[in-house]
TrEMBL record:
The keyword rRNA-binding does not apply. InterPro entries: FAD/NAD-bd_sf (IPR036188), FAD/NAD-binding_dom (IPR023753), Ferredoxin-NADP_redctase_2 (IPR050097), Pyr_nucl-diS_OxRdtase_2_AS (IPR008255), Thioredox_Rdtase (IPR005982). Keywords: Disulfide bond, FAD, Flavoprotein, NADP, Oxidoreductase, Redox-active center. It catalyses: [thioredoxin]-dithiol + NADP(+) = [thioredoxin]-disulfide + NADPH + H(+). Residues 319-356 are annotated as: Disordered. The keyword Signal does not apply. This is Thioredoxin reductase.
Length: 356
């Protein structure tokens, strides 16, 4: 099966690209994945409850509900959605080849252009009690969840020592009664400016050489977390601290495994795009969303970059179509010339212009 454009992924970036491309009558095919990267089709937002910062929904909207609506909008304009995971790609020549999961080596699909929107997943720590209180106090996105009432005027904890941890702790300090940052080593990894702002913040305490061991909380179903057992790795001292919110800022893993060696990536395996665009190092392959953005990682920024990828893919395809037509015309002309060339020295047959 051949498509003009194949989109790999199913989050806000993929569906925004699909909406734009299908409205441009490019009939995109979108592979939404079957629990790809351990996440249901629809992407990271399917793992959360209310999304309160996506414009257009003043009362907030459920993450899954938002993604269902995006999917329906993609379909409405003619996107073909296939519930399979793409497992392997060959971008060495065009048309590009892609292998959906469970197909044999010969059953690949092809596309003139590809948009990679496979997203990322927030790293978890696997603490005791983590599954039980996930989204009931534990979150991997302070900017997304920090403002909800359960965290207001409550003691909150951030784990991590990078720029995200610093940024999130200072963001949370607006809502919580105090914020404790747990850093496993003796130093922050965050940039010097962020680190000094964090350390000087009146509502933030940074505990170095400290790791979390267990999340504790209310016993009933959907009970909230109330505390965190922590340990100083230097002294071995353990304590149970009061905490009503726990925010992981220990990095993300972009879903880029199958593009290794094919698409240029940074040291953390995020796809490198030409700044301000969705262009990758392979002409005709574009990237959008969290897979190429370790800085903002929001639904709206992913959707925005999906739009950019669609517009750039459309432009690239139309320019190529132009090139193709030029090539085809050139070949036609060559043929005509060939027909007019004398064969074995004979004069070409003179064709009278019927209009004369
Ligand atoms: P993702 O949402 O990461 O989706 C990509 C999906 O593509 C994957 O999940 C998978 O289903 C599919 N896929 C992956 N590989 C393949 C493959 N090989 N073949 C086919 N399909 C594949 N942002 C906000 O703006 N507001 C919020 O309130 C908010 N809350 C959040 C809460 C949580 C718990 C989390 C984890 C994130 C939250 N975010 C929020 C961040 C937001 O979800 C992400 O920034 C956004 O979803 C990224 O979109 P994306 O299009 O890049 O891809
Ligand atoms: P980073 O990878 O930079 O930092 C992750 C942090 O989590 C590190 O301090 C790391 O500790 C810690 N960590 C990892 N695993 C564990 C674990 N199992 N237990 C405890 N701690 C752990 O990720 P970020 O998300 O902070 O940043 C990603 C990129 O985005 C960076 O390039 C950053 O500069 C950029 N960014 C920039 C911002 C800005 O400029 N304002 C804001 C946000 C991100 P350790 O140091 O010991 O390895």
């Amino acid at each position: 099966m051949h498509s003009i454009v194949i989109i790999i992924g199913s989050g806000p970036a993929a569906h925004t690209a699909a909406i734009y491309l299908s409205r441009a009558e490019l009939s995109p095919t979108l592979y939404e994945g079957m629990l790809a990267n351990g996440i249901a089709a629809g992407g990271q937002l399917t793992t959360t409850t209310d999304v309160e910062n996506y414009p257009g929904f003043p009362q907030g909207i459920g993450g899954t509900e938002l993604m269902d609506a995006m999917r329906a909008q993609s379909e409405r304009f003619g996107t073909k959605i296939i519930s399979e995971t793409i497992e392997k790609v060959d971008f060495s020549s065009r048309p590009f080849k892609l292998w959906p999961e469970y197909v044999d080596e010969g059953s690949f699909v092809t596309a003139d252009a590809v948009i990679i929107a496979t997203g990322a997943s927030a790293r978890r720590l696997g603490l005791k009690g983590e599954d039980r209180y996930w989204q009931n106090g534990i979150s991997a996105c302070a900017v997304c969840d920090g403002a909800v009432p359960i965290f207001r005027k409550k003691p909150l904890v951030v784990i991590g020592g990078g720029d995200s941890a610093a940024e999130e702790a200072m963001f949370l300090a607006k809502y919580g009664s105090r914020v404790t940052v747990l850093v496993r080593k003796g130093a922050l990894r965050a940039s010097r400016t962020m680190a000094s702002r964090l350390l000087a913040h009146p509502k933030v305490e940074v505990k170095f050489h400290t790791v979390a061991e267990e999340v504790v909380g209310e016993e009933q179903e959907n009970g909230l977390m109330t505390g965190l057992r922590i340990k100083n790795v230097e002294t071995g001292k353990e304590e149970l601290m009061e905490a009503n919110g726990l925010f992981y800022a220990v990095g993300h893993d972009p879903a880029t495994q199958m593009f290794k060696g094919v698409i240029d990536m940074d040291e953390e395996n995020y796809i490198l795009t030409k700044p301000g665009t969705s262009y990758t190092n392979v002409e005709g392959v574009f990237a959008a969303g969290d897979v190429q953005d370790k800085r903002y990682r929001q639904a709206i920024t992913s959707a925005g970059s999906g739009c950019i990828a669609a517009l750039e893919a459309e432009k690239w395809l139309s320019e190529r179509e132009g090139e193709n037509s030029a090539e085809v015309l050139e070949k036609e002309r060559e043929k005509e010339k060939g027909a007019e060339k004398p064969v074995n020295g004979e004069a070409p047959e003179y064709r009278q212009n019927p209009l004369l």
